[in-house]
Amino acid sequence: MILTVGGQKGGSGKSCMAQNLSVALAQNGQSVMLIDADPQRTSADWAEERALQKNATGLKFQAMSGDISDTTLALSKAYDHIVIDCGGRDTKELRSAMIIADVFLVPLRPKRRDLKTLDYVSNLVDQSRIANRSMTALAVVTQAPTLPNQAQRILDAKSVASSFGLPPLQSVIYTRNVYDDCEEAGLSVFEAEDEKAKEEVTAVLQEIMTRLEAQNAQ
User: Fold this and answer.
1) Counts for the chain of helices (H) and strands (E), in that order
2) Do 66 and 38 touch, CB atoms closer than 8 A?
3) Pairing state of beta strands 60-63 and 2-5?
4) Confidence class of residue 43 from pLDDT cuts 50, 70 and 90?
5) pLDDT tens-place string over residues 77-98
6) Which of 47, 100, 159, 178 could form a disulfide with 61 if both were Cys (CB 3.0 to 4.6 A apart)?
């Protein structure tokens, strides 16, 4: 699988999502390459910090820029999965990653300024599918409020994503300090003590794989 994580709004946890999904795949005993194609180099910094952690799950990493499609396809022959962190804006890196992606995942917060970008993202998906008809595009709500009385905001965000042709995952990533703490330390939630965060990322990955299998079976 080539999984591209991107969108058109910074701050929604795209790098964090790419990092944790990469480790989740690696912990399943599969070979994984994490590619940082975001000029902000968030995942690159995370990978450098991770190299200092003795007990961290092994993970290959590479930073790329420009048109990354050919190099990524070449790497895909050597790895079970490739996860690409493309950041939060329309770039050559994002577009070239989308035309080779099996899955395009759009993390979004249940906030108006995130939801307003989905029209643009939907158009990007349509353009990419001219060259990549089989790409599965999905949305996932991140940094969701944990208070029960805020649940409607999550449902509303999922509804908006669906209206733009981006099927939302049932799984949700909630606001938890462990995500920021792990990112700063070069770790994933699977190397922390927060079981709820582990369950959230595991559920996201399982749902992505299920959706991809369903797409491939059509």
Assistant:
1) 9, 7
2) no
3) unpaired
4) very high
5) 999 999 999 988 899 999 999 9
6) 47
For helices 14-27 and 42-50, give the axis angle rounded to 10 degrees.
40
CA atoms of 193 and 180, how far apart (whole Å) = 14
Architecture of domain 2-217: 3-Layer(aba) Sandwich (3.40)
Tens-digit pLDDT profile for residues 115-159: 999 999 999 999 999 999 999 999 999 999 999 889 999 999 999
User: 18, 43 in Cβ contact below 8 A?
Assistant: yes
Beta strands in the chain (DSSP E): 2-5, 32-36, 60-63, 81-85, 103-108, 136-144, 168-174
CA angle 125, 216, 81 (to 5 degrees): 75
Classified as helix, coil or strand, 73 is helix
* E strand residue ranges, 109-208: 136-144, 168-174
Cβ proximity of 15 and 37 under 8 Å: no
Distances from the Cα of 27 to the Cαs of 4, 24, 30, 157, in angstroms?
A: 19, 5, 7, 31
Interatomic CA distance for residues 97 and 119, integer angstroms: 19
Q: Is the pTM of this model over 0.85?
A: yes
Average pLDDT over residues 28-45: 94
> Under a CB-based contact definition with an 8 Å cutoff, are residues 124 and 164 in contact?
no
